[in-house]
């Protein structure tokens, strides 16, 4: 159960960061670790693929240090979902944290 909930938070983080700049797997793992989420490549990469397949992210492969790296950016649909989630987070925060 905790994994389901954490995965939802992780997805929101991914949308948020992919809206600000192009993100890639290792960078996201470091960023998520900073927020207290231990995400393995076995969880993160399939999640990114699913979000791409679902039309929330676009993926572009670039060569960095002679290696292929997949960079993800949010799509307009992903941004719309992020904004909808912002409202829900605000509402949740008001109840769960502030009350
Ligand atoms: Zn973050």
Structure write-up:
The chain is of the alpha+beta class and 99 residues long. The protein has a single domain, classed as Orthogonal Bundle (Arc Repressor Mutant, subunit A). The protein is built from 4 helices and 2 strands; from the N terminus they run αααββα. Bound molecules: zinc ion. Zinc ion binds next to helix 1.
Topology of this protein?
Layout: H1 2-20, H2 25-34, H3 41-53, E1 57-64, E2 67-74, H4 76-96
Antiparallel strand pairs: 1-2
Bound molecules: zinc ion.
In N-to-C order, the SSE pattern is: HHHEEH
Cα distance, first to last residue? 24 Å
Report the biggest beta sheet as strand number plus sense, adding barrel if it closes: 2 strands, antiparallel
Give average pLDDT, whole number: 95
Tally of DSSP helical segments: 4
Bound heterogens, unique:
zinc ion
CATH architecture: Orthogonal Bundle
Would you tell me which CATH topology applies?
Arc Repressor Mutant, subunit A
- Order of strands across the widest beta sheet? 1-2
Number of domains: 1
Number of strands: 2
The top-level CATH class is Mainly Alpha
Shape: globular
Strand fraction equals 15-25%
For the structure shown, list the relevant keywords:
single chain; 99 residues; alpha+beta; Arc Repressor Mutant, subunit A; two-stranded antiparallel sheet; 4 helices; 64% helix; globular; binds zinc ion
